[in-house]
Amino acid sequence: MHESDIQAVVNIIGFDVDDAGQKALKKVSEAGNGAYTTVRTKQELENYFTQEKTELLNEWNSWEVENLNDINSSEVDRLNALHSQENEMVNQAQEEENNLIHLSGYIEEKFDVKGYTVRDKARKRGLALRNYARQTALDFRNNLRKNGLDHRNEVRKKSREAKDEIRNGNSK
Predict the structure, then answer these.
(1) Model pLDDT for residues 130-154, shown as the tens digit of each residue
(2) How many domains are there within the chain?
(3) Contacts of 39 (CB under 8 A, 6+ apart)
């Protein structure tokens, strides 16, 4: 098994095994990329399983924390990128509004036309574009946060279920 693609680990517990048997079992565990442990009493065996169970629970806790941190980090990166994009869109809308207002002043000056209508429309258009950028970004933020929460809840659920199996002795 050790030489195949299966990543098996062979751990062996020797209970009331003579020296020759211990040496043989140790070789088997080493060949299986595992460990050999000798116990002499029922209490030592129970202590061994309690310690192993604790180590498994700690591994699941570490797995959960690592995955939650990865999800949080990814969410923060995406929210920051979205915030930058939103600012860029709002600034471009403001710039377009300013250009149209300047253009209305030019038209008013060159053609003796009242530019207040153009300026009013430019302001309304600029406001609408900025509001659209902000609302779109808000919708994306809410979606990102919901997806992040869903992913975190999936990780917590998987970890909780695995730890419950270990605690209840139903580990696979």
Answers:
(1) 999 999 999 999 999 999 999 999 9
(2) 1
(3) 13, 14, 15, 45, 48
